[in-house]
Design a protein that fits this description.
The complex is a heterotrimer of chains A (about 500), B (about 120) and C (about 325). Chain A is mainly α. Chain A is built from 21 helices and two strands. Chain A is globular. The relative contact order of chain A is 0.09. Chain B has a single domain, classed as Helix Hairpins, CATH 1.10.287.3510. By secondary structure, chain C is an all-alpha fold. Chain C has 14 helices and no strands. Chain C folds into three domains: about 35 residues, no CATH class; about 45 residues, no CATH class; about 200 residues, no CATH class. The longest helix of chain C is centred in the N-terminal third of the chain and has 31 residues. The chains are: A mainly alpha (about 500), B mainly alpha (about 120), C mainly alpha (about 325).
Chain lengths: ~500, ~120, ~325
């Protein structure tokens, strides 16, 4: 067996070790260790990606001395390795962009606890991406939830703690439903590993026994994960949590945390429930309707906001609605569009948050729109980055958002019965996105005579490099979309 | 309605408890009662799992007298799942309680809705 | 050639309205009504106070739960729908349970080859007489490692929320220790001095015998943690700090978790690459058996004990 196949397990264990060792270090060494580990994970994941792309199949890695179904195992193909690489890149860039704010806003005695949270967040994301066992997925979903809560409360004022409490309540509701779904599924099949679950479920569906419990278990699992990733009616905690926490937390929460659950849901759909069973059931209609509702309601709420960070958070609600609409379309093309949107949204939303902090800092720390007039002239790079992010969100060609909207539209046209609704809502949502993003862009580029004091972000080189990398990532996703879409399609076929 | 409703009475109780816990977590105003609801919900899942593993007439899975036949012992897998679940439940309860303590110290109320209304009025 | 229009004609054009909307200054009266030229707003003390009072009153009226009709209606609808949702959930779950296989039936789908293999081969593969311990620490070792990390991250999160500086702890030392309890209660101390050693001994016994009888790292660790809490409750933090302060806590926790991680990493890497695990399984029934289960139980037990004590100390006084 090649050495390179050990890398995914090594990545997961490495991040966990770094979290444990960080609790004994002081804050400077914790920061260095964290940066080192995230970079190393990125490099190792890139190596695995190269390897799996050339060989074109997915590998099973045994965790322990016993083969499945008795022991645990992880499984990775090109899609999983690529998602791991993407997550580590976004995490590195978000951390760098928010480094100054971490230094300023977080209590020095608690800074190393923040890095512990981030290390464990990365380990839980990697485990969710690679796992092949449904109960391991539950344990790491809990680690993900708790680390996200820790990241929200690290800046302590009233709003963040209340937001974290609401987040934990909603998340625990979702976890409870997910757990009871797993237990009912175990009851009927007796397996916890995904491939054996798939065979058992196909046998049960073919034989026609246990029909109602099977539908209920699948519905509980899907609804549990949907609640956790802030699908439309369950999004009330999102604006408070993203709007008031520190910048790196907001960027990582919006790009990574919900996407971990959505990727787990994709894996469950392909590897446990089975494509045909999922698309034959009624649950995708429910996801479709809630996705459409989320797209509209998220944008409408964003228009009413007066605070730039809350506006970006409401825009996240709309984008998660897009992804669930892609699931609800019921075709393979819809799934490819959803996965591409995960990448595009992750890259763009973190860019928006990191750029927004530069703009607010250049306006004396105010976040309301009337103070932000002309902010782009005070911090040119942040303004340009915000412009790139806003154009990508609206869907202007050349940027990644355009490709994802194009893929959604193509998938919608090919599906039967849902094409009209999907296209209408896509159009309305694009117009609504344009309203609030373009208004913001025009406002920050309107010159004004007000003077504000020069702040920390004015001359930082690392901040400029971070923004440059984000813009480059966005353009890469937009220009090289064809190879990326091919990679996603190939990855989804071997996901099963 | 399937045939096993009466034989699975333990599981029915577990589901009713799950519903009670879920409702409390969602609808109660007082934070401590919400946390109690969370614990009831998790305990109901463990009851369900414990019922799952049981086989009538068999004993606990600790090897006695060199007897390795599966006809003597109950299913060990759900017990392992319950062990993991209990630890997760304890951790999450501790976290929720510490959040409640912080909120109480600052706002002197245990009612989450009142806290959000007060925050909206403060305008921050 | 372009001319500049005069103001009155410009105010009627579309461009004027559009730019006013864009810059957020749209005022529906301008251009539609005769208005006197406005004075500069003067900000005196009274006018500021007046404005603040009006602002407060508006907010109070809008968010007044008892009188605001919209809020009341929304609350009633929300309550009704949520109760309906929860009842529907319970009904669906009960109907589902009625279709599930019968409890206690030996021919259930979940008593399949997996559980049979665990029972038949468990002792031979893992060396543990207690099949459940052998299962969670050898067959499904990854889950248990994840679960230990859940405890660790929950402790860190509670520390973020509740930990205060050392100086503040010293300030509040008296009130933290004895605000609501009698100082140096004789009954409690005498009882604790008898019970605490027994609790510790029993906890250590449960940890060490995890692979031979019911028990294991988690239960034993919880017992030792309970013993520590009893000691602190009876004797106070000053006495406990002599043998268990923050340094000891960090050392014990980090060592336990790092050693556990090393064992697990060794186990996974040798297992996946086909190399044999060199930890001897020993003779079943003896304490020094079970391969990796005995050391893992010890490390898990110490970590859980530290965690339980840390939760108590953080809740009580904000620091270890």
């Amino acid at each position: 067996m090649e050495m390179i196949l050990n890398f995914p397990c090594l990545c997961i264990l490495l991040t966990m070790f770094s979290a444990i060792i960080s609790s004994a270090l002081n804050r400077r060494w914790a920061r260095y260790l964290n940066t080192f580990v995230v970079t190393l994970v990125g490099i190792l994941s890139a190596a695995v990606l190269m390897f799996t792309l050339t060989s074109g199949k997915s590998y099973v890695y045994q965790m322990g001395h016993f083969p499945a179904p008795f022991g645990n195992e992880i499984r990775f193909g090109s899609l999983e390795a690529g998602m791991a690489l993407f997550f580590s890149v976004i995490m590195l860039l978000s951390l760098n962009g928010g480094r100054e704010k971490i230094r300023m806003e977080i209590d020095p005695g608690k800074e190393k606890l923040y890095y512990i949270m981030i290390n464990l967040l990365l380990s839980s994301l990697l485990a969710l991406v690679y796992t092949n066992d449904i109960f391991t997925a539950y344990v790491f979903v809990e680690i993900n939830t708790i680390s996200a809560c820790g990241m929200i409360v690290i800046t302590e004022h009233g709003r963040t703690i209340e937001a974290a409490t609401r987040y934990m309540i909603m998340s625990l509701l979702g976890s409870g439903l997910f757990l009871i779904g797993i237990c009912i599924l175990y009851d009927m099949t007796g397996h916890l590993l995904m491939e054996y679950l798939y065979t058992s479920i196909s046998n049960i569906m073919a034989a026609g026994t246990y029909r109602i419990p099977m539908m209920v278990a699948i519905a509980l699992i899907v609804v549990g994960l949907a609640i956790k990733s802030a699908l439309f009616p369950f999004h009330a905690w999102l604006p408070d949590a993203y709007g008031y926490s520190t910048v790196s937390s907001a960027a990582m929460l919006s790009s990574l945390v919900s996407k971990g659950y959505i990727f787990l849901l994709i894996k469950l759909i392909y590897r446990v429930i089975g494509f045909e069973v999922f698309f034959g059931s009624r649950i995708i209609n429910v996801l479709f309707v809630f996705g459409l509702a989320g797209m509209i309601m998220g944008s409408v709420s964003a228009i009413r906001e007066n605070d730039i960070r809350r506006m970006i958070s409401y825009s996240s609600v709309a984008q998660i609605g897009y992804i669930y609409m892609g699931f609800g379309l019921g075709t393979g093309a819809g799934m490819v569009a959803s996965v591409f949107h995960i990448l595009s949204h992750g890259a763009t939303k973190s860019l928006l948050f990191v750029a927004a902090v530069g703009l607010t800092d250049a306006s004396g720390g105010h976040k309301e729109f009337d103070e932000l007039t002309g902010a782009a002239y005070r911090n040119r790079l942040a303004g340009a980055a915000f412009l790139v992010g806003a154009l990508s969100m609206v869907g202007i060609p050349l940027f990644s958002g355009f490709i994802s909207k194009l893929l959604f539209a193509q998938a919608a046209v090919q599906s039967q019965g849902k094409a009209l609704a999907a296209l209408v809502v896509l159009a309305v949502s694009t117009v609504l996105n344009a309203i609030y993003f373009m208004k913001t862009v025009i406002r920050i580029y309107t010159p004004t005579d007000k003077k504000y004091e020069v702040t920390a972000f004015g001359y930082k080189v690392s901040y400029a490099i971070t923004l440059g990398c984000f813009i480059l990532l966005n353009l890469l996703l937009g220009l090289f979309s064809q190879p990326i879409t091919n990679w996603i399609t190939q990855g989804l076929t071997i996901l099963q | 309605m399937g045939g096993n409703l009466v034989q699975n009475y333990g599981e029915v109780v577990a589901m009713v408890l799950f519903g009670i816990g879920f409702t409390n977590l969602l609808l109660q105003k007082n934070m401590i009662k919400k946390i109690i609801g969370l614990n009831i919900m998790d305990t109901a899942v463990y009851l369900f799992l414990a019922e799952k593993g049981y086989i009538t007439g068999h004993i606990a899975p600790i090897i006695k007298n060199g007897d390795f036949s599966p006809d003597t012992y109950i299913n060990p897998v759900p017990s392992g799942l319950v062990l993991t679940g209990i630890v997760v439940s304890v951790s999450v309860t501790a976290l929720m309680l510490s959040l409640t303590i912080r909120l109480y110290r600052r706002y002197h109320t245990l009612d989450l809705d009142e806290i959000s209304t007060r925050l909206k009025k403060e305008g921050r | 050639m372009s001319r500049i229009r005069d103001q009155k004609k410009y105010e009627k054009t579309f461009a004027f309205h559009f730019f006013r909307w864009l810059s957020g200054e749209k005022d529906m009266y301008v251009g539609n009504m005769e208005m006197k030229p406005q004075r500069e707003p003067e900000e005196t003390e009274e006018s500021i106070e007046e404005r603040m009072k009006d602002h407060q009153q508006v907010l109070a009226e809008v968010y007044d739960q008892t009188k605001n009709k919209e809020l009341l209606l929304f609350e009633k609808a929300y309550k009704f729908l949520s109760i309906l949702f929860c009842l529907a959930l319970v009904a669906i779950l009960i109907v589902t349970v009625s279709y599930l296989p019968r409890v206690g039936n030996a021919a259930n789908p979940d008593n399949n080859i997996v559980s049979e293999t665990y029972i038949k081969e468990g002792l031979r593969d893992t060396g543990a007489v207690n099949i459940v311990t052998g299962m969670i620490l050898s067959y499904r070792a990854f889950d248990t490692f994840g679960e230990t990390n859940v405890l660790f991250i929950a402790t860190c999160c509670v520390m973020i929320l509740l930990m205060v500086d050392e100086d503040k702890i010293k300030e509040n030392a008296d009130s933290n220790d004895r605000d609501f309890e009698p100082k140096n209660d004789v009954i409690l101390q005498k009882a604790a001095s008898i019970l605490v050693p027994i609790v510790f001994l029993f906890g250590i016994y449960v940890i060490l015998n995890g692979h031979l009888s019911p028990g294991g790292g988690f239960s034993g660790g919880a017992m030792i943690g309970a013993g520590l809490i009893l000691y602190v409750a009876a004797f106070g933090f000053n006495k406990t700090e002599k043998f268990f302060n923050e340094k000891v806590y960090t050392v014990v926790k980090v060592t336990a978790l790092v050693c556990y991680g090393c064992i697990v990493a060794y186990y996974f890497l040798t297992g996946a690459n086909g190399l044999p695990c060199l930890v001897p399984l020993g003779e079943p029934g003896k304490i020094l058996s079970g391969g990796i289960t005995l050391p893992i139980n010890i490390f898990v037990g110490s970590e859980v004990a530290c965690t339980m004590y840390a939760f108590y100390a953080l809740f009580r006084r904000g620091g270890l």
